[in-house]
Amino acid sequence: MSEKPLVLVTGGTGFLAIWVIVHLYKKDYRVRTTVRSLSRADGIKAQLREAGIEESKISSLEVYEADLLKDGGWTEAMKGVMFVQHVASPFPSSLPKHENDLIIPARDGTLRVLRAARDAKSVHRVVVTSSFAAIAYGHDNEYPELYKYTEKEWSNLESKDTSAYPKSKTLAEQAAWNFIEKEGGSLELTVINPVGIFGPVLGKDVGTSARAVTELLEGSVPGIPQLSFQVVDVRDCADLHLRAMKNPNAKGERFIGVGEGTIWMADIAKLLRKNLGDKAQKVPKFVFPNSFVRILSLFMPVVRLIVKELGKEKLASNAKAKEILGWQWQYNNEEAIMALANSLIKLGAVKI
Ligand SMILES: NC(=O)c1ccc[n+]([C@@H]2O[C@H](COP(=O)([O-])OP(=O)(O)OC[C@H]3O[C@@H](n4cnc5c(N)ncnc54)[C@H](OP(=O)(O)O)[C@@H]3O)[C@@H](O)[C@H]2O)c1
């Protein structure tokens, strides 16, 4: 039997990237990943072990050093690769000092990855992880209530409501499409636009995705803001990335990754209490009035990150991913949220 193709996954230390690697190994692909520091390689391997990947595959993982902010390392990382999953991008849990702290690595990093992929000649397609944040921000009152955003929409960069993270994802994705059109040669591009990613973590070093559930479990805030999330489980999102890599009809398309749909933060708190008993004793019950959170945001920069989203419900359609890729989410909101909570508790990543 011939060897399966080599796939490069950027940012193997990340929450989504590690699950993309797990899914690639489950389909017997060969995998290479990039990290900012090779000292992270053992941590990635430990996470693959936690996911039940065989030792022979774990020891075959190739780990290369490359930073989105630097040219070095990308040419070497692309050698012999057939597909690239470009997942790495800064996803911070607070507003950066300057928006360029996010925009430059996101946009220039994506261009570095695409240029190296084109020049390698062996690469057939790059799948870029963009975000629903590149679709649904800065459109106040432009669409009717309960409108389901589709892949045709783009976030409005002119709006003052579009903060640094949605800007970084929008500019990075636009730069990617522009590159492919003007300089990409025969390189193919497909983009995934996930909503909020939940589901199990595989290591203690958890990122922004786990933050809402972590803060509820630890009771680090005395009340719950009126925030809603569109949810996709990380395992379903990884599956979507693999389908986008292989399906010939995915060329030149973007796909929203959304599972069951909306959940309010207060309902996440209820799910935690219902399923976790004593372990959910710190989960707050009180729901903050929006006016209170707005006042709080004047004094607490981190609260400014959410203040524009209070009381809003943004819906997303997964019809295109279903129709073109035959994708169907497997984990509903409760399963995705409880898998995240249970994994955080099991790995000792929360103080409950
Ligand atoms: N999680 C969500 O809810 C969500 C929703 C929609 C889209 N996304 C997108 O999905 C992707 C993965 O997100 P995630 O949740 O897995 O976030 P994450 O766990 O924070 O992972 C981010 C990854 O990007 C890497 N990275 C950041 N800056 C870098 C740089 N300058 N050079 C090289 N690597 C760099 C990080 O490396 P270090 O470990 O070295 O920091 C890490 O591997 C991102 O593109 C994000 O925008 C996430």
UniProtKB/TrEMBL annotation:
Keyword match Repressor: no
Transmembrane segments: 6-25
Domain NAD-dependent epimerase/dehydratase: from-to ranges: 7-252
Superkingdom of the source species: Eukaryota
InterPro entries: Epimerase_deHydtase, NAD(P)-bd_dom_sf, NAD(P)_dehydrat-like
One Pfam family of this chain: Epimerase
One function term, GO molecular function aspect: oxidoreductase activity, acting on the CH-OH group of donors, NAD or NADP as acceptor
Keyword tags: Membrane, Oxidoreductase, Transmembrane, Transmembrane helix
UniProt similarity note: Belongs to the NAD(P)-dependent epimerase/dehydratase family. Dihydroflavonol-4-reductase subfamily.
The name this protein goes by in its record: NAD dependent epimerase/dehydratase
